[in-house]
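User: Show me an example of a complex going from sequences to structure tokens.

Assistant: Sure. Here are the input components:
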Amino acid sequence: MSTVTENNAVAATPPKPAFRINWIKLAPVLYTIGLFVLWELAVIISGLPHTVLPAPSRVFQAIVQYWSPIWKNSLQTFYTTTLGFLIAVVAGMAIGLLIGWSRAIYAGLYPIMVGFNAIPKVALVPILVIWFGIGTVPAVLTAFLISFFPIVVNVATGLATIEPETEDVLRALGAKKMDIMLKVGIPRSMPYFFGSLKVAITLAFVGSVISETVASNNGLGNMMASAQSQFNVPLVFAGLIMLAVEGIAMYALMAWLERRMTGWAHRSSMAA
Amino acid sequence: MPGRLERGDAMALVSIENVDMRYGGPEGTLAVSGLDLSIARRDFTAVVGPSGCGKSTLMKLVTGLHIPQKGAVVVAGHEVTKPVSIVGMAFQNPTMLPWRTTLDNVLLPLEIVEKHRHRLRKHKDEYVAQAEALLETVGLKGFGSKYPWQLSGGMQQRANLCRALIHEPELLMLDEPFGALDAFTREELWCVIRDLHASRDVTIVLVTHDLRESVFLADRVVVMSARPGRVVAEHPVPFERPRDLEIMYRPEFNEMVQALHGEIANARELA
């Protein structure tokens, strides 16, 4: 009889020597600092004016100087993005389940979804403005529209790839479609679902910022657009930095959720 | 076909009469044609044949996953028109659900079968004890709390057998359950199956490519022809039970395996 694969992480890592720097852990910080240093040096050496390429020191100065509007607009963008994203999660999950439920629905809806996804969402913003006016609503809806497709596709894929043997075993026991979905389909699509959240949240930021840039009086997109029209380039870059920070934070949250909820899927790939 | 005449149809748990099964509409492939087979209660039947002979179709017909276009399949006195829940199935691929522990995987059928699903919550302890006892009989005592991916292939297949047996099916259908295992593990599992069959009131149908496996385990070996599949011969296996792995080195055993091999080679050529 073969032995059980031991998956004991504690046993695997040897006790650390006292003064050892963990370069892997530090790498993200070091590389980020390195990037800013290179950027600073490039600006100094090239002598570009800050209206073209502001040095990071100048950008951070702008963040401090304009902190109040930056904070207010960051919150607004964060709010529209997460709201649109949450709607996308609920709708994407529901439509994904519906599409994965039956082959007929899958066959019928899938091409429509692909066609819909191919439309650049920025082209929809003017329509949303006609319907809802400028401001929060079109930003939320754009974030929603751009981010729900990956969720739908992933949930539907998880459902569509149930092993036929599993289905046979359960059907032979008298399982209804609903039983198979609840016991196998939905749990099995969860890794796909949580995986898609990382893609979706990043896209949601794209959607909300596009909409704010084109049609809003607040949010980071709008702030950057007006800063640009005043040649306040450091403030534009400050907006970009804030977006990057929000994006990284939300991505990390989704990655954490994914690990937390579907750890089995990651561990199983490690098992021999 | 002596095996059939002796037992008679009254004792039969499964009887397949002149069945045709075609996939994919009237122009599709004819998987089995004129299939006749009767399986007595408590019997261990092995089905062998060239690849593509409709062995898996036979599995699906008996379990009610497919309904034949012609002929009748009768299981436990009822003609099969929908999935029959008195069967347990195990395939080559153990298909354990990775998010459930081994114990929860074994308990899965109880969440489905009408008779048990409403009792499960209230009588959980009783069922868990039953599942643990079953895991012990296949040599997986204490592994219930492990996840399937922490088990080796052989152990997963043992757990798979437990899952097929937990609802105490009258009929156990095995579709090459040992195909993906190494030779030693396979022999161990043959003994597990042999002992399960000896100790429980269960009828077993084993679909396999391995002739030694079929002769070692079964009371009767059924040979099917190439597509469209039908039964070309039935051989009662004369060896006394309980059988030991040693019998595989006896000349009578090897003669029988060789004869079966010849028959299947013929069946392939005729196709």
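The lines above are the inputs; the final block is the predicted structure for all two components together. The longest strand of chain B covers residues 12-22.
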